[in-house]
Amino acid sequence: MAPPPQLIRVVDLETTGPAPPAHGVCEIGWQDVALGADGRWALHGEGGSRLVNPGRSIPPLTQAIHHILDEQVADAPFWHDVARQALDPWPRRVALAAHRATAELEFCTPALTRNADWICTWKCAMRLWPECPSFSNQMLRYWRKPEGIDHERGLPAHRAFPDAYVTAFHLRDMLNEVGVAQLIEWSNQPGLLPRVRQGPDRGKDWREIEDESLERFLGDRDIDVRFSAETELARRRGGGAVGRTTLQDVVL
């Protein structure tokens, strides 16, 4: 009998707010992407979701996004009772993935994930598909139109399983283009923004702006903006590149 396939578990959390301990998880969803015998990655299994009792009331501001009500989670298990089982399909898991994974990392601590590597599909999408108008999960869905995606299964947006399901298609295509190691490496760095997103040069490719404008971004408080400006400066000095990393670049 063939051994079970290696997999990456895509997860999505719905929460009462962005940061514990002030906020808690009220739903987790997951969808696995597995490496097939043919060397290609594909969605694996049905995925799933669980409601979670966040241990506090869900503010109207977040209810307006995910529409999860206090009475729906009142009898649900707490996060520490469900997290490890949902996050760690041992021993097959290679890594975890999420879109804008920094949000999930606030709640999915190393203790709960057994120090898993993470792939951030938001950061990787900016590297692989910089021409996309923006990089939200849903924009990528409708701009890319991934092969095989079931439209209804990916709805409603902003619920844990449908969002994880959509993200899994982005991850599948990323894995089949550049592989696990490259995606983890990009995910461990700040986001490399393809375009300037504020000020008079908003919307321009970093390569298009003047040196004086570029220098102003080097001190920006946003780590992604600062990293993008630093990378463009390195390119101008002959030591880097901004935008899509080609397969040739990865091999070299």
TrEMBL record:
SMART domains: EXOIII. Residues 7-180 form the Exonuclease domain. It comes from Sphingomonas oligophenolica. One of its GO terms (molecular function) is exonuclease activity. This is Exonuclease domain-containing protein. Keywords: Exonuclease, Hydrolase, Nuclease. PANTHER family: DNA POLYMERASE III SUBUNIT EPSILON, EXODEOXYRIBONUCLEASE 10. The keyword Zinc does not apply. The lineage of its organism: Bacteria, Pseudomonadati, Pseudomonadota, Alphaproteobacteria, Sphingomonadales. It holds the Pfam family RNase_T.
